[in-house]
């Protein structure tokens, strides 16, 4: 009798171990669309070693104004069709527009060595691609993490070619100052919070397979899951996170492929290596527009720091929108950006 009990316990233990091992070691599938390369994509092979995919839209006027470089969110995000559609009319104002996917995401190359993904690498790539454009002046538009990347670029590279900057729904300046996270905005702005939070999504989607793969990248610098598998997880994760990026839509946004998992987690890990160079920003004379969405999932204190550090800064409010302004309020978003770009330095 006791032998039978021991055998039963052993079988249960083995089954649990096998099930647990399968959850951790076996690749997982996610119900998301396959990644489809964007028509018209071209590539830069940068001196940094990065192969970067980009889409360029030529201005539709005879007189040229400074080109615009759009720096997408993430880290590990990708250029989305909604942003291209929303900003494309700026070509009628004389701007060439460049939409590029950062290394490790979208149309761009995935790196074999995951430890090469970092804030410093993204900054070096941005500097190198601005050299490719060969324009004496450029305008930067940074979305969310893209704003963080642009700020770090300004702290480490010459800024004489930067004509204007749009920081839209910006993430925190690095290193993150947590003391400003809970600052309250002026009530007259009418800011509110989205109904869903990133924390809720992270808790729901953080399965054991993902934890195992993340540990392999963090601790040993290796890929315990293929780029294909983990990028599909990112598409699933992005879809779930989109609930906190919209305010008034009653339906979930569809999953969009293209985000890069390893570029995301390793770049976030490198946040800890960024030195505090805020004093550099306070010396800059670049005109800056800080766009804040009424229902943004980023704390007000982070946007307020941009307004305080940059001497020539102004606030633009996109009402009736969450973090994804190009999806919820594309017309107002475009209007505010176009108005800012059309201003002369003397206005």
Class computed from helices, strands and strand pairing = alpha/beta
Distance between the termini: 91 Å
Strand content: 5-15%
Total number of beta strands: 8
Read across the widest sheet, the strand sequence of neighbours is 1-2-4-3-5-6-7-8
Distinct helical segment count: 12
The 3D shape can be described as: globular
H/E element order: HEEEHEHEHEHHHHHEHEHH
The radius of gyration computed from the alpha-carbon positions, rounded to a whole number of angstroms, is 22 Å
Provide a descriptive summary of the structure in words:
- With 347 residues, this protein is α/β, with parallel strands linked by helices.
- Helix content is 39%, strand content 14%.
- Strand 7, helix 10 (300-309) and strand 8 form a beta-alpha-beta unit.
- The radius of gyration is 22 Å and the shape is globular.
- It starts with a helix and ends in a 5-residue tail after the last helix.
